[in-house]
Amino acid sequence: MNFKDLIAELGQAASLASRSLARSSTDQRNQALIHCADAIEAGQAQLLAANRKDLDAGRERGLSAAMLDRLELNPERIEAMAEGLRTIVELPDPLERVLDEWTRPNGLRIQRVAVPIGVIGVIYESRPNVTADAAGLCLKSGNAVILRGGSEAVHSNRAILNALHHGLDQAGLDTNTVQLVPSQDREAVGALLKAHQWLDLVIPRGGKSLVERVQTDARVPVLAHLDGNNHLYIHPSADLAMAVEVVANAKMRRPGICGALETLLIDKDASAIVPALVEKLTELGCELRGDAELCAMDQRFKPAGDEDWMTEYLAPVLAVKRVDGPGAALDHIARYGSGHTDGIVANDPDLAESFLAQLDSAIAVHNASTQFADGGEFGFGAEIGIATGRLHARGPVGVEQLTTFQYRVFGTGQTRP
Asked: Which long-range contacts (CB under 8 A, 24 or more apart) does 358-367 make?
């Protein structure tokens, strides 16, 4: 198969669809989202059957429990996909917003107006719900999208795409607005990353190796989502009972998601939390890896090595370290963190505000679980990923982050001297 020609065919179709989409109304795009949500719900049986094929294949391949959890669809998750699309409908139209406006001394009126990016490529692993999330966000923001999901979710992704195409068709929109690369060959990804004449932006969503490959090989601008080596720091002023519940949720609600807590930093003056914390987490089935002092305090800690501070486990494993004050906690996060989601549990608001201001993280939390690092929880309806870079977009990538802007200049016959 000639993958360059395959991607060119998809790209040409996406480019035409994006121009057609630019002429669509807000109401038409919203109706398409509603039809897509209805089709996903109506196709639940087909989605579950397709997903069973992927789960069976995944077990045969020896996928981890965390990977299988990301892969699995059930009635609740299918309903959540549909509701995510309906939530996107309720969001304000991100297009044609006048971001700024001014008049020059010569009478020229200049506007900066939000417009679609164009054609977006999304490369992702495991989670089939990303197919619906990415399509919905791109549709709302007026962008065509070419999706390349992981081979482990191939049947699920195709079933979701069929539902999305049904919804687009009912709304009178080009079904090429949302396309899925039909090949699972890695060469297809390489061809997609080099398709600068068709793609305006690539968004990778997956493990560190995927993101690194995209950043290395892409000839298209990349909006990167790196790993989530997330931290919480327990300050002595914290309500310890609340801190235990926040940590337990941050780690164990869903250990396999990018917002899960991976390293806990406990102030040496907050050591009173250790017994209750250990009891709660071990009861939930979490393996604890601690520094020498913590191992001496409780034998349920396994010794942590330097590698543990750098690891995104995506599993019920938590690295725990005692630190000497907020400065030491910030130093640890700066050295080992990935810039995804980090925070503090403290009842001293001034200290907490100062701590958050010094975190170089896309999302900084105070007295809350790191698992709120999610576009739906931010009110975005959904997200394509959590951007950990510093340019264009940062944190959950929703509809506003999938727009760029155009300058519009209005004159009355002015000529430049």
From this structure: 358/330, 359/330, 359/333, 360/334, 361/333, 361/337, 362/386, 362/387, 362/388, 362/394, 362/395, 363/395, 363/396, 365/232, 365/341, 367/238, 367/242, 367/246
